[in-house]
Design brief:
Layout (H helix, E strand, L loop, with lengths): L7 E6 L8 H10 L3 E6 L9 H8 L3 E2 L15 H7 L2 E7 L1 H9 L5 H8 L4 E5 L3 H5 L1 H12 L3 E2 L3 E4 L5 E5 L3 H14 L7 E6 L4 E4 L2 E3 L6 H12 L3 E6 L11 E5 L3 H12 L4 E4 L6 E3 L18 E3 L3 H8 L4 E8 L3 H11 L4 E6 L11 E2 L1 E5 L4 E3 L3 E2 H17 L1
Parallel strand pairs: 1-2, 1-4, 2-3, 4-5, 5-6, 9-12, 9-14, 12-13, 14-17, 17-18
Antiparallel strand pairs: 7-8, 10-11, 15-16, 18-20, 19-22, 20-21
The chain binds cytidine-5'-triphosphate (CTP).
């Protein structure tokens, strides 16, 4: 999945011949799952039509402060547009528009929106080779970079003037690659390795039967996705679940039993920075697994169980640099029991689920958790989607590295 997926992108188009390429650019943004709104300078409409960009972006295109077509929406609010965006890109950025951006010459909607935008701003210059090298243009680049804007350098090749050299707007595919690489390099968990356990474990009774539990695995999968979207490399050790995930940063390791999950976790634990145990691991397993299917020959049938290894406890014992997060599922004396688990399992943070809270627990789309850290600071959270709980957990991880 692209790091641009779900991002709100504001594309500012200024008036150069390369504006025709913005049709492809918008199409590529939509293809990777971004939301796009387009602002055009009046001059750019000579090179590509608003209808084209509106159709491709699936949104109205803005170019003036006043909207002649819509009685209800007379005023195109540049502040709202600026605040809507996760990132703004001016492409093509002509010498004229770059100079206005550098000097705050606010004579069109694009520049007003640029001045209102609080998000990261990128610009992809497009002009003739001598204009590109002119000290005045270089001064605009320098000023914009000092403002914190990022240049997507022009490429070399044949120019509209017939000359050949540097000044062509970067190709739309290259703009996408540039943005993805730049955003990925700035993700807060870039370079961090995170081990996550998820799902139930199945403990075999005989070749066809097992002891299991109702865990869907959703909480662990959501944590894995949230971590990967923040740039972490994830090893997701999961028990049997119908869930799947397709993310280049998530390596899924499928296991069945508690012992297999234990072995997989210890294989990776030494090399990770963070471990999050969200699996509902069986606490007991049949002492003997029948080699053949058990026949119903008796009225009563007793299975002798033995304890499984507590994976989280063993990770707490092996812990060195790792930030270790566990879950606690409690039905009574929740806080006290959770605090005891923090100490016993040598955790940095525990995520407490109380089954007394409505909306929390297995097979639900929501969760209501309380965070308790190793200093016993207690932080109750609202009932929210498991995705949002996953984001909260990852915010704790980010805080650990940066605060
Ligand atoms: N856990 C684990 N291995 C086990 C049992 C639990 O790694 N064999 C982990 C879970 O993934 C969870 C945490 O330990 O992060 C707490 O699980 P929980 O079921 O609440 O508690 P237990 O430690 O099993 O204790 P009890 O069932 O007695 O409350």
């Amino acid at each position: 999945m692209s790091v641009l997926s779900g991002k709100r992108i504001l594309l500012g188009v200024s008036g150069g011949i390369a504006a025709y390429k913005t049709a492809s650019l918008v199409r590529l943004f939509i293809k990777v799952g971004a939301h796009v709104q387009v602002i055009m300078t009046p001059a750019s409409k000579d090179f590509v039509t608003p209808l084209t960009l509106s159709t491709l972006s699936k949104n109205p295109v803005y170019s003036t402060f006043f909207n002649q077509d819509d009685e209800d929406e007379k005023w195109n609010n540049h502040v709202e547009l600026g605040l809507w965006a996760d990132l703004m890109i001016i492409a093509p950025a002509t010498a004229n528009t770059l100079s206005k951006m550098a000097n705050g010459t606010c004579d069109n909607l694009l520049i007003a929106t640029y001045l209102s935008a609080k998000c990261p701003v990128y610009f992809a210059p497009a002009m003739d080779l001598d204009m590109y090298k002119h000290p005045s243009t270089i001064a605009s680049f320098t000023a914009l970079e000092q403002f914190g804007n990022t240049i997507i350098p022009a490429e070399s090749g044949e120019l509209a003037s017939g000359l050949s050299g540097e000044g062509r707007m970067a190709e739309p595919e290259n703009i996408i690659t540039f943005l993805e690489a730049d955003l990925e390099s700035k993700l807060p968990l870039k370079g961090k390795k995170i081990l996550i356990t998820a799902g139930p474990t199945y403990e075999a009774i005989d070749p066809v039967r097992f002891i299991g539990n109702h865990s869907s695995g959703k909480m662990g999968f959501d944590i894995a996705k949230s971590a990967a979207n923040l740039g972490a490399s994830v090893i997701l050790v999961t028990g049997p679940t119908h869930l799947t995930v397709n993310h280049s940063l998530i390596n899924v390791v499928k296991v069945t039993s508690a012992q297999e999950m234990y072995d997989a976790c210890h294989q990776y634990f030494n090399a990770v920075d963070v471990a999050i145990a969200a699996a509902a691991v069986a606490d007991y397993r049949p002492k003997n697994i029948a080699e053949q299917k058990i026949k119903k020959n008796t009225d009563n049938f007793v299975i002798e169980l033995e304890k499984t290894k507590d994976i989280l406890l063993s990770l707490g014992e092996a812990k060195k640099q790792q930030f270790l997060i566990g879950f606690a599922l409690e039905t009574e004396n929740e806080i006290e029991n959770a605090k005891a688990k923090i100490q016993k399992k040598n955790l940095d943070l525990i995520v407490l689920n109380s089954l007394q809270d409505e909306g929390a627990g297995f097979q639900k789309m929501t969760n209501k958790v309380t965070f308790i850290d190793k200093d016993f600071k207690i932080e109750p959270m609202e009932l929210k989607s498991k995705e949002a709980v996953a984001d909260d957990i990852l915010n704790k991880v980010i805080a650990h590295f940066y605060e």
